[in-house]
Amino acid sequence: MSAAVLSGKELSEAIRAETASEAAELAAAGIPPRLAVVIATADESSAWYVRSIARAAEKAGIVCDLVDLGPDAAAGTIRETLAELSGDPVVHGVILQTPLPGGAALEDLASAIAFEKDVDGASPLSLGRLAAGLPAFAPATAEAVVALLDHHAIELSGRHAAVVGRSTVVGKPAAHLLLDRNATVTVCHSRTADLAAVTSAADIVVAAVGRAGLITAEHVRPGAVVVDVGTNPTAEGGLVGDVDAGSVRGRAGALTPVPGGVGPVTTALLLRHTVRAAARTGGAAARVGREGSG
Amino acid sequence: MSAAVLSGKELSEAIRAETASEAAELAAAGIPPRLAVVIATADESSAWYVRSIARAAEKAGIVCDLVDLGPDAAAGTIRETLAELSGDPVVHGVILQTPLPGGAALEDLASAIAFEKDVDGASPLSLGRLAAGLPAFAPATAEAVVALLDHHAIELSGRHAAVVGRSTVVGKPAAHLLLDRNATVTVCHSRTADLAAVTSAADIVVAAVGRAGLITAEHVRPGAVVVDVGTNPTAEGGLVGDVDAGSVRGRAGALTPVPGGVGPVTTALLLRHTVRAAARTGGAAARVGREGSG
């Protein structure tokens, strides 16, 4: 028996096609959707990710501005840049790329992103509204976890999900989204006493730690669904997840691949959020974005 | 064997004494701490709670204004009142009492409370900052859970806590506070498939549902610590928790009483937050409140 592969390809293509069509409508209405990516790092995997967003945005008909402040940018400069972009009426979405220069915290700086333009749900206000069940853009990665499970018709209500990782960008918002869908949710982390005992009690395991191969067969109940959010660069220039797929494949009921699982859905949702944010600024385009914040 | 009683009496008295002394210093410096309680309900247990806050505030040297808008107040009126009080320099803390008139959501209305005066952590921004690990006032009830466990020297790090209830005012913020203290946290709720199986796997059970007697011996692992957040009025005019104490007492290692457990600590923390908020507005009183938001 081998775990079913929960690919993100089909879903991400569907979201991107829908987004491209909404973007074209908006552009025709005089509101070309525009995403600003603020960069303050020379990190290579970050640069790779930014290029892939920029390419995907272009294909979807979204203008993507890369605002590179350099790896030595001061926190104050980053904050001012985010505030300026938030105040610029032609910009609809603003994201701040990580890692950040020495000591700066994403949660703190992201407070400078206006709520309506916070398309990657990075600000504390977005997180709080998400947790409170009020409309907000969720962090795209966290939303991708739930969207991928939905796409593959995996029931969430009443099931027990273990989220491994408690970051503000993935673990915590994913926990809130799963709770909102009536899952019972356990959040585990580096200080969890017996990780395998906790995760193997769950129907669904979401691995979002950033440590290659952390989740092995012993962490997974036979037949459980495993979502791998990790994207860890290998020495050979490839990408591996937080799940040791070779070990887990024979035990899990279903597993998201890396690459090709959560990743492409994340990018697609980021673009969808940008278009939805643009739709809200223009009454002329009221027809687009009627489905809420995602 | 009978469970140890985790009383809130000693801790609440200590916090109230410290708060009274800080309030006196502030008053002497020309900044009498002031709390505004906005009421839009004729609910009796709410009225009882408000009176107890007002009495406790008075004893601690905090001015307490009851702003009663009546049970038919429109959401817009409540919002405007919260915004006005937020803008009033002599008011340091603002809380909105529940229940609210037909359909109004606390999370939504509480957005109108200025972050610095949100002494009961009711606004989405406070919740998001709490979840992101940034300074914020936590909802007093959620903070009281952790404060009471700390006071009784109960270890949290690496232990498994089950929070029963996912409200924005208690369950969710308590989960974040426990996570922040390195507990592994499971959030359960009305849709949890087998509640007793989930809670009896935990070292610490926090019951915050508002249903008298929901938690019985079968929900508790022998020796576990049980925190009862429930305050359910009885037909006889008394108060009972969410825990069936008679059933749980013989099995749990420790149990918080109702009344006399989380409740008095909650009130004391609300007063402490108000004094801390007042201390921050006055440079003259910088010595007070140096310990952060609590």
From TrEMBL, chains A, B:
Tetrahydrofolate dehydrogenase/cyclohydrolase catalytic domain boundaries: 6-120
Gene Ontology biological-process annotations: L-histidine biosynthetic process; methionine biosynthetic process; purine nucleotide biosynthetic process; tetrahydrofolate interconversion
Enzyme Commission numbers on file: 1.5.1.5, 3.5.4.9
Pathway: One-carbon metabolism; tetrahydrofolate interconversion
Subunit structure: Homodimer.
InterPro entries linked: Aminoacid_DH-like_N_sf, NAD(P)-bd_dom_sf, THF_DH/CycHdrlase, THF_DH/CycHdrlase_cat_dom, THF_DH/CycHdrlase_NAD-bd_dom
Described function: Catalyzes the oxidation of 5,10-methylenetetrahydrofolate to 5,10-methenyltetrahydrofolate and then the hydrolysis of 5,10-methenyltetrahydrofolate to 10-formyltetrahydrofolate.
The protein, known as: Bifunctional protein FolD
Presence of the UniProt keyword Membrane in the record: no
Keyword terms: Amino-acid biosynthesis, Histidine biosynthesis, Hydrolase, Methionine biosynthesis, Multifunctional enzyme, NADP, One-carbon metabolism, Oxidoreductase, Purine biosynthesis
Catalytic activity: (6R)-5,10-methylene-5,6,7,8-tetrahydrofolate + NADP(+) = (6R)-5,10-methenyltetrahydrofolate + NADPH; (6R)-5,10-methenyltetrahydrofolate + H2O = (6R)-10-formyltetrahydrofolate + H(+)
Positions of the Tetrahydrofolate dehydrogenase/cyclohydrolase NAD(P)-binding domain: 139-280
UniProt keyword Amino-acid biosynthesis present: yes
Gene: folD_2
GO cellular component, one term: cytosol
Residues holding NADP(+): 165-167, 231
Pfam families linked to this entry: THF_DHG_CYH, THF_DHG_CYH_C
